[in-house]
Specification:
By secondary structure, this protein is an alpha+beta fold. 20% of the residues lie in helices and 30% in strands.
């Protein structure tokens, strides 16, 4: 539990920091390495070592915009499981299709590559924005409602013209500070 260790470390460190801040004599020069810092006769040198801070875990998905599929949504936990993929067009799409042994030129100039089975669980921001395709105004994105969008993931099959497609549609998600802040459906012809 890194959080518990951090709190305990701060509780133990706070008195020492307060004492150091209140003392003007004998304070070590912060620009000097610890082994060369002067010591005061009033305070013996410390024998305990301070543990090195633990490296922060790498984010599940870097901040930015990512393409893929939303496999599931847990509204109780406020998370979604995302399957990262790559949407390719043009020469890149044809090259990837050829490498995978698929039809070239690719239909509709689009090819999706998803060679990694890893699913990423990401928190959903309370300020989530959802952008969908309104079947009556194809193919512009319009602002959708978050609750029915998330609820659509509980159903497996949707009519082709449903406003919320759940797992049937590919999406672009925007991650900021580790949370999903925006979801946009990707139109596929």
């Amino acid at each position: 539990m890194p959080h518990t260790r951090t709190v305990a470390f701060l509780v133990l460190l706070a008195p020492a920091l307060l004492a150091a801040a209140c003392s003007s004599a004998g304070a070590p020069d912060p620009s000097e390495p610890p082994s060369q810092a002067p010591t005061s006769a009033a305070s013996p040198p410390a024998t305990a070592t301070t543990p090195a801070p633990e490296p922060s875990p790498s984010p599940v998905l870097e901040d930015g915009r990512h393409f893929g599929s939303i496999r599931s949504v847990d509204t109780q936990a406020g998370t979604l499981r995302f399957d990262l993929a790559y949407l390719l067009t043009g020469d890149a799409a044809n090259q990837a299709a050829a490498e995978h042994g698929d039809e070239v030129p690719v239909p509709n100039d689009i090819y999706i590559v998803n060679d990694n089975p890893k699913l990423r669980t990401l928190p959903i921001s309370p300020d989530l924005e959802v952008w969908i395709i309104d079947p009556k105004r194809c193919c512009d994105l319009v602002r959708g409602k978050v609750a029915p969008f998330l609820a659509a993931f509980a159903t497996r099959h949707h009519p082709w013209d449903a406003r919320y497609q759940g797992r049937q549609a590919p999406y672009w998600i925007t991650v900021r500070d580790g949370s999903v802040v925006r979801i946009e459906v990707q139109y596929l012809p």
